[in-house]
Backbone:
Protein backbone atom coordinates (compact mmCIF):
# COMPACT_ATOMS: atom_id res chain seq x y z
CA UNK A 1 0.00 0.00 0.00
CA UNK A 2 1.28 3.47 -0.82
CA UNK A 3 0.27 6.58 1.10
CA UNK A 4 0.75 9.69 -0.99
CA UNK A 5 1.07 12.66 1.32
CA UNK A 6 -0.20 16.18 0.80
CA UNK A 7 2.48 18.00 -1.29
CA UNK A 8 5.20 19.77 0.73
CA UNK A 9 4.49 17.86 3.94
CA UNK A 10 7.44 18.55 6.23
CA UNK A 11 8.88 15.65 8.25
CA UNK A 12 9.20 17.91 11.30
CA UNK A 13 5.52 18.88 11.27
CA UNK A 14 3.34 17.59 14.16
CA UNK A 15 0.91 15.98 11.67
CA UNK A 16 3.69 13.98 10.03
CA UNK A 17 4.97 12.83 13.43
CA UNK A 18 1.45 11.84 14.39
CA UNK A 19 1.09 9.84 11.16
CA UNK A 20 4.37 8.01 11.65
CA UNK A 21 3.50 7.23 15.27
CA UNK A 22 0.20 5.78 14.11
CA UNK A 23 1.84 3.66 11.42
CA UNK A 24 4.36 2.31 13.94
CA UNK A 25 1.44 0.72 15.80
CA UNK A 26 0.47 -1.51 12.85
CA UNK A 27 1.81 -4.95 13.68
CA UNK A 28 3.63 -6.83 10.92
CA UNK A 29 3.84 -3.75 8.72
CA UNK A 30 6.99 -1.76 8.10
CA UNK A 31 7.32 1.59 6.38
CA UNK A 32 9.65 2.96 3.75
CA UNK A 33 9.62 6.66 2.95
CA UNK A 34 10.43 8.04 -0.47
CA UNK A 35 10.81 11.75 -1.12
CA UNK A 36 10.87 13.29 -4.58
CA UNK A 37 12.10 16.87 -4.60
CA UNK A 38 10.69 18.70 -7.61
CA UNK A 39 11.08 22.29 -8.76
CA UNK A 40 7.63 23.31 -7.53
CA UNK A 41 6.92 20.85 -4.78
CA UNK A 42 8.24 18.02 -2.67
CA UNK A 43 6.27 14.82 -2.79
CA UNK A 44 6.45 12.19 -0.10
CA UNK A 45 5.23 8.64 -0.47
CA UNK A 46 5.13 6.12 2.33
CA UNK A 47 5.26 2.46 1.38
CA UNK A 48 3.59 0.11 3.81
CA UNK A 49 5.23 -3.30 3.49
CA UNK A 50 3.82 -6.48 5.01
CA UNK A 51 0.31 -7.70 5.59
CA UNK A 52 -1.58 -4.62 4.42
CA UNK A 53 -4.67 -6.62 3.43
CA UNK A 54 -6.05 -6.01 6.92
CA UNK A 55 -6.02 -2.23 6.37
CA UNK A 56 -8.91 -0.49 4.71
CA UNK A 57 -8.23 2.28 2.20
CA UNK A 58 -10.95 4.43 3.81
CA UNK A 59 -9.37 4.25 7.28
CA UNK A 60 -5.86 4.95 6.06
CA UNK A 61 -7.05 7.83 3.87
CA UNK A 62 -8.27 9.63 7.00
CA UNK A 63 -4.84 9.69 8.66
CA UNK A 64 -3.09 13.07 8.98
CA UNK A 65 -1.20 14.39 5.89
CA UNK A 66 -2.52 11.60 3.66
CA UNK A 67 -3.67 12.87 0.28
CA UNK A 68 -4.44 9.57 -1.43
CA UNK A 69 -3.86 5.84 -1.03
CA UNK A 70 -2.98 3.25 -3.66
CA UNK A 71 -3.29 -0.45 -3.02
CA UNK A 72 -0.49 -2.04 -5.05
CA UNK A 73 -0.63 -5.36 -6.76
CA UNK A 74 2.43 -7.53 -6.21
CA UNK A 75 3.88 -6.60 -9.57
CA UNK A 76 6.34 -3.71 -9.89
CA UNK A 77 5.27 -1.95 -6.73
CA UNK A 78 6.99 1.35 -7.36
CA UNK A 79 7.01 1.63 -11.15
CA UNK A 80 3.82 -0.31 -11.87
CA UNK A 81 0.39 1.05 -12.61
CA UNK A 82 -2.09 0.08 -9.96
CA UNK A 83 -5.80 0.59 -9.46
CA UNK A 84 -6.70 4.27 -8.82
CA UNK A 85 -3.05 5.12 -9.30
CA UNK A 86 -2.63 8.62 -10.65
CA UNK A 87 1.04 9.01 -9.83
CA UNK A 88 3.10 10.79 -12.46
CA UNK A 89 4.18 9.08 -15.67
CA UNK A 90 6.95 11.55 -16.40
CA UNK A 91 9.99 13.20 -14.91
CA UNK A 92 12.19 16.16 -15.78
CA UNK A 93 15.93 16.11 -16.06
CA UNK A 94 18.19 19.04 -16.93
CA UNK A 95 15.27 20.93 -18.41
CA UNK A 96 14.06 18.04 -20.59
CA UNK A 97 10.80 16.24 -19.92
CA UNK A 98 10.65 12.46 -20.27
CA UNK A 99 7.21 10.91 -20.04
CA UNK A 100 4.75 8.44 -21.45
CA UNK A 101 3.38 11.42 -23.41
CA UNK A 102 6.63 12.82 -24.86
CA UNK A 103 9.09 11.81 -27.56
CA UNK A 104 12.85 12.39 -27.38
CA UNK A 105 15.42 11.32 -29.95
CA UNK A 106 18.91 10.30 -28.82
CA UNK A 107 20.89 10.05 -32.06
CA UNK A 108 24.64 9.71 -31.64
CA UNK A 109 27.75 7.58 -31.65
CA UNK A 110 27.51 3.98 -30.48
CA UNK A 111 31.06 4.47 -29.24
CA UNK A 112 33.10 7.64 -28.95
CA UNK A 113 36.19 7.27 -31.15
CA UNK A 114 37.58 10.71 -32.02
CA UNK A 115 36.89 14.21 -30.79
CA UNK A 116 36.29 15.25 -34.42
CA UNK A 117 33.49 12.70 -34.81
CA UNK A 118 31.94 13.78 -31.53
CA UNK A 119 31.95 17.37 -32.72
CA UNK A 120 30.54 16.56 -36.18
CA UNK A 121 27.72 14.60 -34.56
CA UNK A 122 26.81 17.25 -32.03
CA UNK A 123 27.01 20.05 -34.56
CA UNK A 124 24.55 18.17 -36.80
CA UNK A 125 22.23 17.60 -33.86
CA UNK A 126 22.18 21.29 -33.01
CA UNK A 127 21.52 22.16 -36.65
CA UNK A 128 18.43 19.98 -36.45
CA UNK A 129 17.16 21.25 -33.11
CA UNK A 130 18.16 18.21 -31.03
CA UNK A 131 19.21 18.47 -27.38
CA UNK A 132 19.87 14.80 -26.60
CA UNK A 133 22.43 12.31 -27.87
CA UNK A 134 24.04 8.95 -27.19
CA UNK A 135 27.79 8.64 -26.67
CA UNK A 136 29.29 5.33 -25.56
CA UNK A 137 32.46 5.59 -23.47
CA UNK A 138 32.33 2.18 -21.77
CA UNK A 139 31.54 -0.57 -24.25
CA UNK A 140 30.65 -4.12 -23.23
CA UNK A 141 32.10 -6.24 -26.07
CA UNK A 142 31.72 -9.89 -26.94
CA UNK A 143 35.46 -10.28 -27.60
CA UNK A 144 38.00 -9.21 -24.99
CA UNK A 145 40.25 -8.15 -27.89
CA UNK A 146 37.70 -5.72 -29.34
CA UNK A 147 37.81 -1.96 -28.61
CA UNK A 148 36.40 -1.47 -25.11
CA UNK A 149 35.64 2.25 -25.39
CA UNK A 150 37.85 5.18 -24.39
CA UNK A 151 36.37 5.18 -20.89
CA UNK A 152 37.02 8.16 -18.64
CA UNK A 153 39.65 9.69 -20.93
CA UNK A 154 37.03 10.83 -23.44
CA UNK A 155 34.55 12.22 -20.92
CA UNK A 156 35.98 15.76 -20.58
CA UNK A 157 35.89 16.47 -24.31
CA UNK A 158 32.53 14.78 -24.78
CA UNK A 159 30.99 16.93 -22.03
CA UNK A 160 32.72 20.11 -23.23
CA UNK A 161 31.42 19.56 -26.76
CA UNK A 162 27.94 18.92 -25.42
CA UNK A 163 28.08 22.27 -23.63
CA UNK A 164 29.29 23.96 -26.80
CA UNK A 165 26.45 22.56 -28.91
CA UNK A 166 23.61 22.86 -26.41
CA UNK A 167 23.22 19.13 -25.72
CA UNK A 168 21.35 18.70 -22.45
CA UNK A 169 21.29 14.93 -21.97
CA UNK A 170 23.77 12.25 -23.08
CA UNK A 171 22.78 8.59 -22.79
CA UNK A 172 25.89 6.71 -21.73
CA UNK A 173 26.18 3.08 -20.74
CA UNK A 174 28.06 2.19 -17.59
CA UNK A 175 29.18 -1.34 -16.84
CA UNK A 176 30.76 -0.86 -13.42
CA UNK A 177 30.02 1.25 -10.37
CA UNK A 178 33.37 3.07 -10.68
CA UNK A 179 32.11 4.62 -13.93
CA UNK A 180 29.54 6.57 -11.95
CA UNK A 181 32.27 8.38 -10.04
CA UNK A 182 34.26 8.98 -13.23
CA UNK A 183 31.23 10.58 -14.86
CA UNK A 184 30.53 12.70 -11.77
CA UNK A 185 34.13 13.93 -11.67
CA UNK A 186 34.26 14.77 -15.37
CA UNK A 187 30.94 16.62 -15.17
CA UNK A 188 32.25 18.60 -12.22
CA UNK A 189 35.50 19.43 -14.05
CA UNK A 190 33.59 20.64 -17.09
CA UNK A 191 31.29 22.82 -14.99
CA UNK A 192 28.26 20.53 -15.48
CA UNK A 193 28.22 21.39 -19.15
CA UNK A 194 25.53 18.78 -19.81
CA UNK A 195 23.46 16.04 -18.18
CA UNK A 196 23.94 12.27 -18.34
CA UNK A 197 21.37 9.51 -18.52
CA UNK A 198 23.01 6.32 -17.30
CA UNK A 199 22.38 3.32 -19.49
CA UNK A 200 22.22 -0.23 -18.20
CA UNK A 201 22.91 -2.43 -21.20
CA UNK A 202 21.09 -5.61 -22.11
CA UNK A 203 24.01 -7.70 -20.85
CA UNK A 204 23.70 -6.13 -17.40
CA UNK A 205 19.93 -6.08 -17.03
CA UNK A 206 20.17 -8.64 -14.24
CA UNK A 207 23.41 -7.41 -12.70
CA UNK A 208 21.53 -6.79 -9.47
CA UNK A 209 24.41 -5.25 -7.54
CA UNK A 210 24.98 -2.70 -10.31
CA UNK A 211 21.23 -1.99 -10.39
CA UNK A 212 21.19 -1.37 -6.64
CA UNK A 213 24.12 1.04 -6.82
CA UNK A 214 22.65 2.96 -9.74
CA UNK A 215 19.26 2.95 -8.02
CA UNK A 216 20.70 4.45 -4.84
CA UNK A 217 21.65 7.68 -6.55
CA UNK A 218 18.97 10.09 -7.67
CA UNK A 219 21.09 12.58 -9.66
CA UNK A 220 21.15 10.73 -12.96
CA UNK A 221 18.12 9.19 -14.64
CA UNK A 222 18.54 5.66 -15.94
CA UNK A 223 17.75 3.98 -19.22
CA UNK A 224 17.53 0.25 -18.57
CA UNK A 225 17.54 -2.01 -21.60
CA UNK A 226 15.44 -5.13 -21.72
CA UNK A 227 17.54 -8.27 -21.26
CA UNK A 228 17.88 -9.92 -24.67
CA UNK A 229 17.23 -13.47 -23.48
CA UNK A 230 14.82 -13.12 -20.57
CA UNK A 231 11.10 -12.50 -20.23
CA UNK A 232 9.57 -9.04 -20.22
CA UNK A 233 8.49 -9.62 -16.62
CA UNK A 234 12.07 -10.36 -15.58
CA UNK A 235 13.29 -7.16 -17.26
CA UNK A 236 10.53 -5.06 -15.68
CA UNK A 237 11.54 -6.45 -12.29
CA UNK A 238 15.10 -5.38 -13.05
CA UNK A 239 13.81 -1.83 -13.60
CA UNK A 240 11.94 -2.12 -10.31
CA UNK A 241 15.27 -2.77 -8.56
CA UNK A 242 16.35 0.74 -9.53
CA UNK A 243 13.13 2.28 -8.26
CA UNK A 244 12.98 0.24 -5.07
CA UNK A 245 16.39 1.65 -4.15
CA UNK A 246 15.08 5.20 -4.63
CA UNK A 247 15.60 6.23 -8.26
CA UNK A 248 12.27 6.74 -10.03
CA UNK A 249 13.71 8.44 -13.07
CA UNK A 250 13.74 5.26 -15.09
CA UNK A 251 13.13 4.69 -18.80
CA UNK A 252 12.65 1.20 -20.16
CA UNK A 253 14.40 0.33 -23.44
CA UNK A 254 13.34 -2.26 -26.01
CA UNK A 255 16.24 -3.38 -28.20
CA UNK A 256 15.21 -6.70 -29.71
CA UNK A 257 15.56 -10.29 -28.52
CA UNK A 258 18.41 -12.66 -29.26
CA UNK A 259 17.06 -15.51 -31.37
CA UNK A 260 17.61 -16.65 -34.92
CA UNK A 261 13.82 -16.36 -35.37
CA UNK A 262 14.55 -12.68 -35.94
CA UNK A 263 16.84 -13.31 -38.94
CA UNK A 264 17.77 -11.47 -41.08
CA UNK A 265 17.76 -8.81 -38.37
CA UNK A 266 20.44 -8.82 -35.66
CA UNK A 267 17.75 -9.26 -33.00
CA UNK A 268 14.04 -10.03 -33.13
CA UNK A 269 12.40 -6.60 -33.04
CA UNK A 270 10.09 -6.42 -30.02
CA UNK A 271 8.51 -2.98 -30.39
CA UNK A 272 5.03 -4.47 -30.22
CA UNK A 273 5.74 -4.45 -26.48
CA UNK A 274 5.76 -0.63 -26.34
CA UNK A 275 2.06 -0.40 -25.38
CA UNK A 276 2.36 -3.40 -23.07
CA UNK A 277 5.13 -1.74 -21.03
CA UNK A 278 3.16 1.52 -20.92
CA UNK A 279 0.12 -0.36 -19.64
CA UNK A 280 1.99 -2.34 -17.00
CA UNK A 281 4.20 0.47 -15.72
CA UNK A 282 4.47 4.25 -15.54
CA UNK A 283 7.84 4.30 -17.31
CA UNK A 284 8.45 6.11 -20.59
CA UNK A 285 9.45 3.52 -23.20
CA UNK A 286 12.51 3.77 -25.44
CA UNK A 287 13.13 1.87 -28.65
CA UNK A 288 16.58 1.12 -30.03
CA UNK A 289 16.16 0.37 -33.74
CA UNK A 290 19.94 0.15 -34.35
CA UNK A 291 20.71 -2.76 -32.05
CA UNK A 292 17.44 -4.43 -33.03
CA UNK A 293 17.98 -4.42 -36.79
CA UNK A 294 21.77 -4.27 -36.87
CA UNK A 295 22.20 -3.54 -40.60
CA UNK A 296 21.60 -0.84 -43.19
CA UNK A 297 19.37 -3.13 -45.24
CA UNK A 298 16.44 -1.41 -46.90
CA UNK A 299 13.10 -2.39 -48.41
CA UNK A 300 12.21 -2.19 -52.11
CA UNK A 301 10.72 1.31 -51.71
CA UNK A 302 14.12 2.51 -50.46
CA UNK A 303 13.37 2.90 -46.74
CA UNK A 304 15.98 1.50 -44.34
CA UNK A 305 14.71 -1.30 -42.07
CA UNK A 306 16.02 0.82 -39.16
CA UNK A 307 13.65 3.62 -40.20
CA UNK A 308 10.77 1.17 -40.70
CA UNK A 309 11.03 -0.29 -37.21
CA UNK A 310 11.51 3.16 -35.68
CA UNK A 311 8.23 4.23 -37.28
CA UNK A 312 6.55 1.04 -36.06
CA UNK A 313 7.64 1.73 -32.47
CA UNK A 314 6.55 5.36 -32.63
CA UNK A 315 3.17 4.59 -34.16
CA UNK A 316 2.70 2.33 -31.13
CA UNK A 317 3.55 5.18 -28.71
CA UNK A 318 7.31 4.96 -28.04
CA UNK A 319 8.68 7.89 -26.01
CA UNK A 320 12.36 7.78 -26.84
CA UNK A 321 14.53 6.62 -29.73
CA UNK A 322 18.14 5.61 -29.14
CA UNK A 323 19.88 5.34 -32.48
CA UNK A 324 23.42 4.94 -33.83
CA UNK A 325 24.81 7.51 -36.26
CA UNK A 326 28.39 7.93 -37.44
CA UNK A 327 30.11 10.49 -39.69
CA UNK A 328 32.18 7.72 -41.33
CA UNK A 329 30.68 4.31 -40.50
CA UNK A 330 33.45 2.36 -42.25
CA UNK A 331 35.92 3.83 -39.72
CA UNK A 332 33.66 3.27 -36.68
CA UNK A 333 35.27 1.14 -33.99
CA UNK A 334 31.92 -0.34 -32.87
CA UNK A 335 28.75 -1.20 -34.80
CA UNK A 336 29.62 0.68 -38.03
CA UNK A 337 27.37 -1.56 -40.19
CA UNK A 338 24.22 -0.36 -38.41
CA UNK A 339 25.09 3.35 -38.22
CA UNK A 340 23.00 5.92 -40.05
CA UNK A 341 24.84 8.68 -41.91
CA UNK A 342 24.82 12.28 -40.73
CA UNK A 343 23.20 13.30 -44.01
CA UNK A 344 20.31 10.93 -43.16
CA UNK A 345 19.54 12.76 -39.90
CA UNK A 346 16.92 15.17 -41.36
CA UNK A 347 15.14 12.31 -43.15
CA UNK A 348 15.17 10.22 -39.98
CA UNK A 349 13.72 13.08 -37.91
CA UNK A 350 11.03 13.86 -40.47
CA UNK A 351 10.08 10.21 -40.75
CA UNK A 352 9.74 10.13 -36.96
CA UNK A 353 7.48 13.18 -37.11
CA UNK A 354 5.20 11.44 -39.62
CA UNK A 355 4.94 8.40 -37.36
CA UNK A 356 4.34 10.53 -34.26
CA UNK A 357 1.50 12.37 -35.99
CA UNK A 358 -0.04 9.02 -36.90
CA UNK A 359 0.21 7.96 -33.24
CA UNK A 360 -1.44 11.19 -32.10
CA UNK A 361 -4.26 10.74 -34.62
CA UNK A 362 -4.74 7.14 -33.48
CA UNK A 363 -4.97 8.31 -29.88
CA UNK A 364 -7.66 10.86 -30.79
CA UNK A 365 -9.55 8.23 -32.76
CA UNK A 366 -9.50 5.87 -29.79
CA UNK A 367 -10.72 8.68 -27.52
CA UNK A 368 -13.63 9.34 -29.86
CA UNK A 369 -14.65 5.70 -29.83
CA UNK A 370 -14.37 5.50 -26.04
CA UNK A 371 -16.96 8.27 -25.75
CA UNK A 372 -19.48 6.38 -27.86
C1 LIG B 1 24.32 0.17 -26.84
O1 LIG B 1 23.25 0.83 -26.79
O2 LIG B 1 25.40 0.65 -27.18
C2 LIG B 1 24.29 -1.25 -26.48
C3 LIG B 1 25.40 -1.95 -26.28
O3 LIG B 1 23.04 -1.72 -26.39
P1 LIG B 1 22.51 -3.12 -25.82
O4 LIG B 1 22.89 -3.15 -24.37
O5 LIG B 1 21.05 -3.04 -26.06
O6 LIG B 1 23.20 -4.20 -26.63
MN1 LIG C 1 26.30 -0.68 -30.28
Residues:
Amino acid sequence: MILILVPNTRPESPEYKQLMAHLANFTGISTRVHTEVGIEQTLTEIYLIGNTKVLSIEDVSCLPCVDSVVRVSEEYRVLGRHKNDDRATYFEYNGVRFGQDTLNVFAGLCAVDTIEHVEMMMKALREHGQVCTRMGAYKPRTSPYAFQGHGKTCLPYVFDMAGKYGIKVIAMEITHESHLEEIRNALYQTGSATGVMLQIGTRNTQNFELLKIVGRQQNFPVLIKRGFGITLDESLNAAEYLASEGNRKVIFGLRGMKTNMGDPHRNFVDFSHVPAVKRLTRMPVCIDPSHSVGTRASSPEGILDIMHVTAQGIVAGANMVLVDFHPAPSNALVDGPQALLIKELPQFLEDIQIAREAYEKRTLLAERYREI
The mean pLDDT is 96. The radius of gyration is 22 Å.
